[in-house]
Write a structure and sequence with these properties.
Layout: H1 4-11, H2 18-45, H3 65-74, H4 80-111, H5 117-127, H6 136-144, H7 156-160, H8 167-180, H9 183-191, H10 196-207, H11 209-225, H12 228-234, H13 242-249, H14 257-292
Helix pairs in contact: 2-14, 3-14, 4-8, 4-11, 4-13, 5-8, 9-10, 11-14, 13-14
Protein name: Cellobiose transport system permease protein
GO biological process, one term: transmembrane transport
Domain ABC transmembrane type-1: 84-278
Length: 293
């Protein structure tokens, strides 16, 4: 017989305690403050420059978005449309490379037995403690010695090559594969005569798709937002990445902020779309990692 009191409690709608109400209120305020810069960017991108000087400030969108975007894409010294295309190419290639190489290296460190495995993993982790700024000069010299006339500096290859594999990606995939792929599955594949690459494609990859989705989204966003290295190697060219093109829009003695923020709005839209589409995958990957650990 079921306990009547327990059955009544189970059938009752969940009650929000005062603590949970205050928590939701606090989170709503944090979200509002976090989203306000994006909204303000949209407001200025749809108005004229006079909107910045208004007191009280302009808080409603205007009707100048099309005009401002036309100015951004028609500027002769800033090839913004081509810069967006370059960012798409660089981010897509780097993301695909990171997913392949980092998942493959993570599988090797997690499930394969070879001499020096732990020492190599420690070296990979230690590279994450070195700031990227310390290697900029050496990287620029290295890209200048690559095959081709003048090396790779000034080309998209110089932006793509340093990001083809990341230490964070290797470490992240290793930790996920350790728990997501039992050793028995790997041994069963070997008994069936499968090669190491066949085990990777048929056993490991299907099991770690949530982690790969999270790593892919994080890598794409980080590559798209990269500014320092593309500025150094592509700053003097006519077709840089979108972040460098935005800095060109903001340069000069007189800055038209409506034009700068209109370009920033266009450069932000792909990231917002990816985060909205892949937000569930990020939460799923984080939750699965938390449960397995």
């Amino acid at each position: 017989m079921k306990n009547p009191r327990r059955a009544a409690l189970m059938g009752r709608a969940p009650q929000h305690t005062p603590g949970s109400v205050w928590s939701y209120l606090f989170l709503s305020i944090v979200i509002a403050f976090s989203a306000f810069p994006l909204y303000w960017m949209f407001v200025i991108a749809t108005n004229t420059d006079e909107a910045l000087a208004k007191i009280p400030p302009q808080v409603l969108p205007g009707g100048q978005l099309t005009t401002n975007l036309r100015e951004v894409f028609s500027m002769q010294d800033v090839f913004f449309l081509q810069s967006l295309g370059n960012s798409v190419i660089v981010s897509s290639v780097v993301t695909a490379s990171v997913l392949f190489f980092c998942s493959l290296a993570g599988f090797a460190f997690a499930k394969l037995r070879f001499r020096g495995r732990n020492a190599l993993m420690v070296m990979v982790i230690l590279t994450m403690t070195v700031p990227n700024q310390l290697g900029v000069v050496a990287l620029y010299i290295l890209m200048g010695h690559m095959p081709g006339e003048g090396g790779w500096n000034g080309t998209l290859l110089a932006v793509i090559a340093p990001g083809l594999v990341t230490a964070f990606g290797v470490f992240y995939m290793r930790q996920f594969i350790l728990d997501a792929v039992p050793d028995e599955l790997v041994e069963a594949g070997r008994i069936d005569g499968a090669s190491t690459m066949r085990i990777f494609w048929s056993v490991v990859v299907p099991a770690v798709r949530p982690a790969m989705a999270v790593l892919g989204l994080l890598t794409f966003v980080a590559t798209w937002n990269e500014f320092q290295w593309p500025l150094i190697t592509l700053g003097g060219t006519d077709y840089p990445t979108s972040m460098v093109a935005l800095s060109d829009l903001a340069s000069g003695n007189y800055v038209l902020y409506r034009r700068v923020l209109a370009g920033a709005l266009v450069a932000t839209l792909p990231l917002l779309v990816m985060l909205v589409v892949g937000g569930r995958q990020i939460v799923r990957g984080i939750m699965e990692g938390a449960v397995k650990s």
